[in-house]
Specification:
Number of helices: 10
CATH superfamily of the largest domain: Endonuclease/exonuclease/phosphatase
Strand order of the largest sheet: 3-4-2-1-12-11
CATH class of the largest domain: Alpha Beta
Structural class: alpha+beta
CATH architecture of the largest domain: 4-Layer Sandwich
Helix content: 25-40%
Order of helices and strands: HHHEHEHEEEEEHEHEEEEEHHEH
Distance between the termini: 102 Å
Radius of gyration: 33 Å
Number of domains: 4
Largest sheet: 6 strands, mixed
Strand content: 15-25%
Shape: flat
């Protein structure tokens, strides 16, 4: 046995412990081989540099707020990010003029970065005037532990402003869309059409999609026709709106948080008032639950020897002396075929037991989907052969016979 003092005395470069001593040290987990120590150090460095402090069981902490100018609220926003432990903050109505805005730099705490989308300034604007304000604009602030990159959707809209990006953490990836619809503009059908186009582009991503911002739609008013139209649009894309408290001093819910119904989102709450809008805080859980494996049986097709199977099949009664099969009925032939093929498969491709992860079914694929596809196929292939040129069900014209 070694005393603690004797073990510490072995920590010398000119002394090599005996093999028995090294095995005893390793078995008691008092020390690890150099290869294991280096690997553990790499994992520790990777976790410290890539994982946000709010990931894991707690999820990723988001914030969303309409500031109505960040010029006089930079200190407040900077303190809010730190106090609320936000990983990502979406700011609408920033009133900034560009990425080099001093207000953006002042509100960005150390260890954070910013992606912005300022409202384009018209050529005839009096930018040097004291009373000039570049209204609108958005910005996304994110911790340096969150790898975030701006995404260009190449979709021009006229009824609202947006900024989009894709982020990743140690738990997974996400797509974030910040939206600001000016309240000074009247709602119209064009807004919902343009928003639908954006949603169609976002539907191509298989990672969680988070949409938040100031929509200036009174979703809390059940009699508002535009609120109903927005609810129908969200439902058609499988989206859910999570904010249930007033976010504006007038008592309405204007700042929305929207995700797909299968995304886990918790801790949705309305916080302090930053302007006439309050901060909306929510947590998104990117880490998918561990898929449980279930025992299943199947054939070991990778071990299947095709040449030997074909040789045995050619030598069986299914391929030799076919005249003897003329007097058999169809049922007898089916039974013979099934029996012989099963016998050959048992010989050349054994049944094995496996454990397979059962993945969830696609949300939009249900029991009615196959029949709907069949009906659509029938309508797509239907053609009316008429002489008077009457349009067919598919929108074409009849062809003369």
């Amino acid at each position: 046995m070694y005393t603690p003092k004797e073990l510490r005395s072995l920590n010398r470069h000119d002394v090599t412990p005996t093999r028995a001593a090294r095995k005893a040290i390793f078995s008691l987990r008092l020390w690890r081989p150099l290869r294991q120590r280096r690997r553990a150090q790499r994992l520790l460095e990777r976790d410290e540099s890539t994982r946000p402090f709010c990931t894991g069981a707690n999820g990723l902490s988001f914030g969303c707020v309409n500031t109505r100018s960040i010029g006089n609220k930079a200190a407040t926003l900077c303190r809010t990010i730190i106090d609320e432990h936000l990983d990502v903050l979406v700011i609408t109505e920033t009133w900034h003029e560009g990425a080099q805005s001093s207000a953006l730099k002042r509100l960005t705490p150390p260890g954070y970065h910013c992606v912005d989308a300022a409202r384009p300034i018209s050529a005839d604007a009096a930018v040097n005037a004291i009373e000039f304000h570049n209204h609108g604009g958005l910005a996304i602030l994110y911790r340096d532990a969150v790898k975030f990159r701006r995404k260009v959707l190449d979709i021009n809209v006229s009824t609202f402003e947006y900024v989009c990006g894709r982020g990743s953490t140690g738990d997974g990836q996400f797509v974030l869309l910040g939206v600001y619809r000016p309240g000074s503009q009247a709602l119209s059908i064009a807004f919902f059409e343009e928003l639908s186009t954006i949603f169609e582009r976002l539907s191509m991503y298989n990672c969680p999609v988070v949409v938040c911002g100031d929509f200036n739609v009174h979703v809390d008013d059940s009699s508002c026709v535009y609120a109903l139209r927005l609810a129908e649009l969200l439902q058609s894309f499988g989206y859910v709106q999570h904010v249930t408290e007033a976010t504006h001093t007038a008592g309405h819910i204007l700042d929305l948080v929207i995700t797909r119904s299968d995304i886990k989102i918790t801790d949705v709450r309305v916080g302090d008032w930053i302007s006439d809008h309050a901060l909306v805080h929510f947590t998104v859980h990117l880490k998918k639950p561990v898929e449980e494996s279930q025992p299943v049986t199947g054939r070991a097709w990778r071990r299947f020897k095709r040449d030997k199977f074909e040789s045995d099949l050619a030598a069986s009664e299914l391929c030799t002396n076919l005249e003897a099969l003329d007097n058999k009925s169809a049922d007898d032939l089916a039974l013979l075929y099934r029996y012989r093929m099963t016998q050959l498969l048992e010989k050349h491709c054994l049944i094995v037991k496996l454990r397979r992860k059962m993945r969830p079914a696609t949300p939009w694929y249900d029991a009615e989907t196959p029949s709907a596809v069949t009906v659509a196929g029938k309508h797509g292939s239907l053609r009316d052969a008429t002489d008077d040129g009457v349009p067919t069900l598919t929108g074409g014209t009849g062809r003369s016979s």
